[in-house]
Amino acid sequence: MSKVYFSTWRGESINNIGKPEDAWEESAYNLPEQYNEHASSKAFIGWDGVALFNPDVDVVRLATEYAAQYQVYSEACGRCAPGRWGGRILYDLLDKIARGEGSMADMDHLKEVSKTMQMTSKCEIGKTVPTPLLDLMSHFEDEFLICINEQKASKHYNKDVNYIAKITAPCTDACPAHVDIPAYIEGVRDLKLENSVAATRQTMPLAHTCGRVCPHPCEDECRRINLDSAISIMELKRIGADYETDHGFGYFHPEKQKKPIGKKAAIIGAGPAGLTTAYYLALEGVECDVYEELPVLGGEVAVGVPEYRMPIGKYNEDIEAVRDLGVNFITNARVTPDMLRQFEKDYDSVMIAVGTRISKKVRCANERPEIEGYWSAIEMLDQINLWEKYGIGEPVDLTGKTVVCVGGGFTSMDVVRCSIRANAKKVIMIYRRDEKTIIRNTTYEEYHEAVEEGVEFIFHSAVERMNDEDDVLKSLDFNKFELVPDPNGGRAQLLKIEGADFSRDVDFLIPAVSQSADLDLLPEEWDINMTSWATIKTNGKDYMTSRKGIFATGDCEYGPMTIVNAVGQAKRAASVMVRYMQTGEITLSDDEIMEDHLRKMRVYDKNEIITGWMPGIERSESEKLDVDTRRDNNKEINLGFTQDEALHEAERCMRCYYIAMVAH
Amino acid sequence: MSINFTINGREVIGKKGESILEVARREGIYIPTMCYLAKTTPNASCRMCVVEVKDMDGFILSCNTPPTKGVSITTNSDDLFHERQNIMKLYNVNHPLQCGVCDKSGECDLQNKTLEFQVAQQDFATKEQKRKPKKWGVLSYDPYLCIMCEKCTAVCNQVVGSEALYIKPGGYKSEIDNHFTKCIQCGECISVCPVGAMASSDFKYTANAWELKKIPSACAHCSSVCALEYEVKEVGIGSTFKDKEIYRVTNEADHDSLCGAGRFGYDYENRVTCKDKEAFAKAIGAFESAKSIHFTSMISNEEAYILQGLKEKHGYKLINAEAKAYQNFMKAYTSVSGCTLYSATLDTIRNCDYAITLGSAVSQDNPMIRFALAQAVNNNRAYVSVMHPFEDDMIRNIVSQYVKYEVGSEEGVLALLCENFIADEHRKTFSKFLDSLDEGYICGETSVGEEEFETLNRYKNRKKAPVLILGADLFTHPEAENIARMAGLLDRYSDFDIMIIPSNTNTLGVSLICDLDDEMTAPSLGYNAPANFVLSALGDGDLDMPAMNQQEGTLTSIDKEVVPLNAGLPYHGYELSDIANVLGLTCKHLIDFTCKLPTAKGYSSVAFDDLDNCYLNDGTQVRGYKLDNPKLKASESPSEIADIREFNGSVIYNCNPISQFNRFTDKAHQIIDKAILIGSQQFADAAKIKSGEQVTFSVDGQTITRKFKLSSKLKGTVALNPDFDMFEKSAAYRYTQVKIERV
């Protein structure tokens, strides 16, 4: 809910003109009334309407500035006839009216050009820019007419007003790393694949990785869902990345690396968050040392995610892209409190991105780590991946063994599928909730493929007790639950089904319920604020910890989450860190402030009815290795799109760019 | 998979991958476009091709939308007309009204669509930007005229594979720019520009489109024999001597391509004012006493037929070392593959998903191979491995893998290809040959590592249409015969299609039609080749002959097609048919022989005037006819490979600059590359020479003097020595170990 003077946002029609302020009807949407802690907004204007927060807004100038923003945006475009010329005419004519030189014919031409743009523009930006302009011209026609009839400039034409604009898209908004998805898809469509990968790297250095193992929240907010089905956004990312490596081009960075600015940062952890921080700091000319506890780089994506999902050769390309900017990596370096104290002195800022590498317990009776056969998911995956990918340590052979994994997330899927590949006799997944939930928490493909490979899923169940003989695991006792709806309409409850307990002889119990952060490196006297989940606390916007100059991102800040979440946080943090190192201030850029406002408002509107696109065009599905060819090896399962499939998929993208603008 | 739907009430069927626009065009239904280019992916910038779909709100873009089952499409309505008219109004905003002096006037899409959509007045205007016209060699760009349809950048990126042209974004200020060092001056951009923005620097301000007469013919510079149209204008009106001149070359650019040589190398005609009776009599005399006829492969099938006929009648030896090498190569190939002709065409390459080239300078030898590879990379993400002793930096964006082998070791490389790619079920049949291969030795001598083959094998996994492209380095190799047999083996017993690039324009035709000899005996008669008496289309011999742009006849193309050649310009002197008539091969015109070409070699008895030369609505080219490829008995097997000879010190490679092929392209005024020796710093250091110096060396017994130029793009000890200016191409192996001396 927002307090507005006037709003046409998302089809609402709120008009408090002439009403006393205490009688104002509120908007149903989370509009950015307050721009930041220093400024309140005067108006918000965007693809789906306009909202005024007070009566003093110069609507003629607001319209002109919005059209001007389209000109600024189209600096990077101008790629369709209606957008290129139409946008220019909108601006020229509006400015002509606003400065007091317009005529009635200009108003007619504005409406005519607007309609052509709405009907025929290449992307949503061209189609939607006229929408709020037409709203203003019809609801505040008088103000336009005053300018025309009296041939005078609009009321604030020469006043200083801040107009802050931001380009977004539903998918970009939904992506935690705010990747410019339409741009990288357009690179594929135009067969300018170097542009595609460069667009991805603007906010996402791990193009190979997130073209393979991202849970793609963007695809849940793809506007194409309203028409038929979401674009296969994630897989299209792979096309540009593969092109770069297949042709040995080196690395296409989004911009030229800045010269050294004389600042140094220490980054602890070489997982997605650490790599991302280093990448964007290095691009800005900051010297980066990355400390990694393990002998290998990449964090959980390297030692957690199995080869068949994320080939290490491809991930190493992402890591090399970071190293390409001169980032210094120090492996086998577990950071201690003493070292961290020293880092604070030696570096201009420090990023803690150590992830969550302690498997949580399943909380059953007799759960003692010393029992042989009790094996944490992290340790198991470490051993498998270090061996399979790097030849470090020794292989895992589960021949003849029965393995039970307790989990329900990605890690547990990796455990059970790796167990199959390690030749286990029987692999069982124990999950407290149902099939639908496990699919929601992972992906349909992941679950489906695990079933195909022979994993037995037992839903609504939990381990009650570990039974050992001389500290060797022999069997497990399980409880069964059922989901009982709350008669009062509250959340359904899991209730134990009496008499449904069962036991199984097993060799291994692998807890993969969740992980916690190992934060022994934090000096006690720093007394860093923690969340109730025992992760490092920040405000979730600038990612600085309670200690100045010490930042935290990724799983150790948020708790176990996705790669793309870690990347998004780290990208933002790197931007804050650069400013902090140069000015000593913690600030967000206007772009970042707008990014957060938009996310709060949600760009995607699931109720929107889409016109101008043909529905029923099927989404491309890439070929996967069949179960017999993949079950006993580490071959990458997803073969990726052929060029035909990629182009077909890229053509489905509706290029839903939008411009949002705040006046304050 | 087919999709039934209707366009304007007519039942049509869409194929998988087709857009609504493609179906409409195929069916002959008109939808206006400004930016659509059939041979590239849709740019979707003009928005003119919007259509209405029954029961759907809004307009649908037809160029990039596939039809779905049962939809009814309407391509024309008052609403559509109105919006298209508005788009044309926008396109006309500030478009300079210089049609009177614009090259494109009369064939301009903007002009045509402005007329079609009746934009009689200008309602909108906006402040014009400052822009700067550019000249990039053969092309001139006027940003004021540019409508940003993006056809030029699409063609440069997707068809040529140069990625020279790009969009410099700037919204209303956007324009096209050129990474000029990547530009190969092919002029594809000019051919697709719908307005006068991308113009030929040479043609500018010389003629109105409607004054030019189009004569469809074929390019005669290389074996691709691309379709083109000579655009000819009468000059010297009112003077006693009326003549014609070719003003430019165009083509069906929506579907087809030309390289720079084809587009700009057209004015090589032999201008002869009358029949030189005296020279003709001498020529007949020379024929009567001659023992051999020496000729090149830049002749038509009919001329080749005459030469063969003269041989049969008068016992001449026919000498054409280049075609002979190709003929021998194909013979050995046939003995194992069982096919008279190689299996691939340019389309096979365009549609391939995996290509290996071996023994060819891909950028220079045959531009259409490069174009086809670029299209395969873009359209099918083909894996392209270029095997050659040095890396060609110009095609880095096309190539996935460079495999550098030692000069002279081609036989070994082909043996490794056999070892890797002969299908398992046939290995036993050829176990004697395969077992004889000592991989360790071959890898050592070729410098091709196991790793490179591992990569090749890894990327070949799941590929469905692999092709192997073999070039001219192989035909003249000392072990050419065995190389050819291995190629035959791969054709028959692997999944590769094979392309054996004919080394000159009509090498394939000559090698099929003529029974060629090895040794020349004096006295000799030359046709565009050195001899005691020379017939020359360059005007520097003893009797003038018409050049290929002045002849009617047919050529046999790389696609194994017989395609018609029409005379762009008249020729007033004697032709080979005149000589044939005197020597007992009677004909009225050269083209009387077209239907007599040897059917045993795959030719058909089709008369010249019955040869088609057009395109269908869907872009299919209907041109001449395809040669039969009769199957023969295959009995041979490759033999054990010879010891691999090492090439040390300075090595010269016969290789022309892009667009220079022969003395005819050299004569064309827009093809300006000079005959200079180009080498790396390493080459210069080893030969103790500097850039700019005149150097001399000997190739195949001939002493050559050239200016040397250093190139930072080259590495290693092989320098490129052009032979386009030579009277005759060397028939020796393309690489020569030489001693370089300063002049």
Chains forming the largest contact = A-B, 51 and 57 residues
Which structural category fits the helices and strands of chain B? Answer: alpha/beta
Whole-number radius of gyration of chain A? 28 Å
Per CATH, the architecture of the domain at 324-500 in chain B is: 3-Layer(aba) Sandwich
Numbering strands along the chain, what is their spatial order in the largest sheet of chain A?
A: 3-2-6-5-23-7
- The CATH homologous superfamily name of the domain at 324-500 in chain B equals Dimethylsulfoxide Reductase, domain 2
Contiguous runs where pLDDT drops below 50 for at least 5 residues of chain B: none
How does this model look, in words?
The complex is a heterodimer of chains A (664) and B (743). Among the domains of chain A are: 160 residues, NADH-ubiquinone oxidoreductase 51kDa subunit, iron-sulphur binding domain (de novo design (two linked rop proteins), Up-down Bundle); 156 residues, FAD/NAD(P)-binding domain, CATH 3.50.50. Chain A is 37% helix and 15% strand. In chain A, the strands form 6 sheets. Chain A has a 6-stranded antiparallel sheet with strand order 3-2-6-5-23-7, sandwiched between helices. Chain A has a 5-stranded parallel sheet with strand order 10-9-8-11-22, sandwiched between helices. Chain A has a 4-stranded parallel sheet with strand order 15-14-13-20, covered by helices on one side. Chain B has 743 residues and is of the alpha/beta class. Among the domains of chain B are: 75 residues, Ubiquitin-like (UB roll), CATH 3.10.20.740; 102 residues, 2-Layer Sandwich (Alpha-Beta Plaits); 177 residues, Dimethylsulfoxide Reductase, domain 2 (3-Layer(aba) Sandwich); 92 residues, Barwin-like endoglucanases, CATH 2.40.40.20. A 5-stranded mixed sheet of chain B has the order 2-1-5-3-4, with helices on one face. The radius of gyration of chain B is 27 Å and the shape is globular. In chain B, 55% of the residues are buried. Chains A and B meet through helix 1, helix 2, helix 3 and helix 23 of A and helix 2, helix 4 and helix 12 of B.
